Amino acid sequence: MSPAIVSSPIAPPTHQSTPPPTHPDRLYVNRSTKAFASGAISLIDLPAGSLFAKITGTTPGAKAYTSVQTGRDTHIELNSDLVYCNHSCAPSLVFDMSRMEVRVVDDKPLHKGDALTFFYPSTEWEMDQPFQCICGSEECRGWISGAKTMEPAVLEEYWLNPHIAGLLNERK
Length: 172
Description:
Blueprint lengths: L26 E4 L8 E4 L8 E4 L4 E3 L5 E5 L2 E4 L8 E2 L5 E4 L4 E4 L12 E2 L12 E2 L10 E2 L7 H4 L6 H10 L1
Parallel strand pairs: 7-10
Antiparallel strand pairs: 1-2, 3-9, 4-6, 5-6, 8-9, 11-12
Keywords: Methyltransferase, Transferase
Protein name: Post-SET domain-containing protein
GO molecular function: methyltransferase activity
């Protein structure tokens, strides 16, 4: 007779692990249990127009609420804490997908404690999940569905990625 093999069940994890930060010297992720309520906060001061971070470690992706459009028909997943940079109609950052870098907007410096935000239509022609903006800025544009549905005069107030500018020119 062979000895009985006793197996003990593996206990399920009692907490969900959080991946290590990807930009611990640059940003803090303010995590929320509410849907779409997490956000990124600057840990540093930088002058207007300066480089905040290079965009690295990405993977090709499909159009999704987590992806960023990089060209006419291409999207990437950021795979970093940069994904927590939310939309604002008065953004603190520019996501330059042609240079694969994130810069401070040209018209104001970034301060420690500032929310890290960018203007989604600067990268997105047509959003996967349009939404009612609640940024609270004087410039708030309301319904955000991508550059495709916005007036050119409004978009001229923002820095736009070359693929968005090209699509706007085609629309004319």
